[in-house]
Amino acid sequence: MIPQVILNGISLGAMIALMAVGLSLIFGVLRIVNFYHGEAYMFGAVIAYYVIVTAGLSYILAGIIVVVAVGTLGWGLDILVFRRFHGDLIGGANAAIALSLGFQNLMWLIFGSIPRAIPSVLTGQLQLFGAIITKERLLIVCIGLSTILILAWFIKSTKMGKSLRAVQQDSEAALTMGINVKRIYAITFGLATALAGLAGFLMAPIGFIWPVMGMQPLFFSFTVIIIGGLGSIMGALIASFIIGLQQSFTTTFLSQPLATVISFGLALIILILRPRGLMGHEE
Amino acid sequence: MKNKIKGSKLNFIIPMVCGGVFLMFLPFRFGPFYSHVFILMFIHIVLASSLRILFLSGRASLGQAAFVAIGGYTSGLLTVKLGLPFGVCFLAAGIMAALAATALGRVALGAPGAYFFMITLAFWAVIDAIIRQWEGLTGGYLGFHHIPPILGFTDITPNYFIIMAFTALTVFIMYRLDRSKFGREILAIGDSSDLAEMIGINVLRHRVVAWTIGAAFSGFAGSLQAHYMTSISPMSYPIFLNIYIIIWCTLGGVQKVWGPIAGASLLTLLAELLRMSGVLQALLYATVLLIAIMMMPHGITGLVDTWRARASRHQYIGGGAKSRTRPKFPVIK
To answer: Smallest CA–CA separation between B167 and chain A, in Å?
Structure first.
């Protein structure tokens, strides 16, 4: 029983991490609380549905199309909308909320309100330490975790990643060092939303696809970044697995709605003990 | 010249009187549907105004609907289960909301603005989950019904006037508060909390007080709404209510008392106007909202201030120096 619960928690945590890392990145660099993130997740799944079910193309191609399309959309939205709100918490949040409302309602019109599904990639299951996991879920967890590792390497080692961190620390100093700050902003937004799109694409064969599917993961990621510390990627990663395990345990041994209360309760307690989250740094 | 009313005062009084007369005759002239729309508008005005003081102190809340829910359920449960009169329940609603706000504010308002912003959302989610789960008390998902109407009036017209009177009272209190010493100190905190602390203002306590006042008024509004609708459920306090309250407040602009009023009334009327477009309503509403947010980053009051500054620049050279110091739109970090 316990290994199964832990395994479920880890696989949920990996999914949340993919969303939360992007959300944390956007907050760290652009200082925007991005409510649009849930819609990026939803777009990932919806585009995957159209590419795989309607057009009948392969999963790998669908994945590439999702990442490119959602990333480009995010990049464009930053230039069109969010550029004027950098550093303005409420303005940015309002704009993101309005965008999110708009896209959700657009999807009600285009996609309809009936939840749809796409066929599974892999069938069959594996036995791991006495716990059962479907091969499909294992594949998803592996892709999710390796994406986060690649992102970590990208931010740590590449020139672009270094300039991204420079902008996060002090955008004006970065500007004087010859970093194209506006470009970094747009790339960050595109990258982070592409990650959310990837998460939506990966979850599409497991769950249902419909216009409000982004709300739940968005809520999870908000809790995660409160616990982990806004803007901290490492914190978001750790907190994702804390929340994943907590969700898995409370859903199994208590009840599903109670799990949500406990998640937010946990976030409140951590904030009382550590006002800047687990890994948030002083400013 | 002492007795002569100044031009600027007259500009203010004439629309006030016209608007007042219009609102007085609205239920008799236009019938129950428009009365209903305007009752909603009044409640929205109270909610939007309740957020303004906290906003000026440099903190924003995304969980105001939690206090509306606390107010609504407190008032509804007390009247239905204990049979208390409306007046008592109405006061209890505000007090409960204020107590909850004080408890949350004391621990959470010390955190940076962005954290507080999201903690309040988390607080709403907790309240929402409690309401859904505690079926024995709140009726769970289905809510509970047959709440007695305000003071026993089942007709819409008395309800209209009671809620309008409460809205007017709220606006008056907010206006007085804005002119009081406390209001000035809140402005100082919004300008720079470090400087405010330096001159001996207790920043945390002021923010808690501002947040509590706002929550109390949200609780009152929740009570009125519950008794007016006569039934409540978790669906009465969706996550969108949090979002709408903050958008009403900021799109109106927080620099002036009339900012949230303008925001709430214009956006409520806009939503009703767009109802004609059928399925496109929500999409059009979101589009208008996005454009408005992008065009007016400091709200309607900010736009008016810009116009005034531009007009005065045409009149006198260097007119900028003459302008009074006005509260700036606070930047929340």
So the answer is: 25
Q: Does A112 touch chain B (CB under 8 A)?
A: no
Residue A270 within a domain: no
- B56-101 confidence digits (pLDDT tens): 898 989 889 999 999 999 999 999 888 888 889 999 999 999 999 9
Pick from A4, A12, A8: nearest CA to A223: A12
B118, B251, B279 ranked by CB distance to A222: nearest: B118
B113 part of contact set with chain A, CB < 8 Å: yes
Answer whether residue A266 is part of any domain.
no
Q: Look at chain A and report how many structural domains it folds into.
A: 1
Residue A118 lies in a domain: yes
The domain of A199 spans 2-213
Listed by start position, the domains of chain B span 7-322
Contact B255, B326 (CB under 8 A): yes
To the nearest whole Å, the CA of B22 is away from the closest chain A CA by 32
ipTM: 0.82
Fold of B7-322: ABC transporter involved in vitamin B12 uptake, BtuC (1.10.3470)
A125-154 burial: b if 16+ Cβ within 10 Å, else e: eeeeeeeebbebbbebbebbbebbeebeee
A225 in a domain, yes or no? no
Angle CA(B319)–CA(B322)–CA(B324) in degrees, nearest 5? Answer: 130
Q: Quick one: tokens of A254? A: 């208590």
Query: What is this structure's pTM?
Result: 0.86
In sequence order, what are the residues at sequence separation of 6 or more whose Cβ sits closer than 8 angstroms to the Cβ of residue B129?
Answer: A257, A258, A260, A261, A264
Q: What is the pLDDT of residues B97-156, one digit of tens each?
A: 999 999 999 888 888 888 888 888 888 888 988 888 888 888 888 888 888 888 878 788
All residues of chain B having their beta carbon less than 8 Å from the beta carbon of residue A260 are: 125, 129
End-to-end CA distance of chain A, in Å?
Answer: 44
Q: Tell me the CB-side half-sphere exposure of residue B27, using CA atoms within 13 A.
A: 16
Q: Which residues from chain A sit within 8 angstroms of residue B66, using beta carbons?
A: none
A172 shares contact with chain B (CB less than 8 Å): no
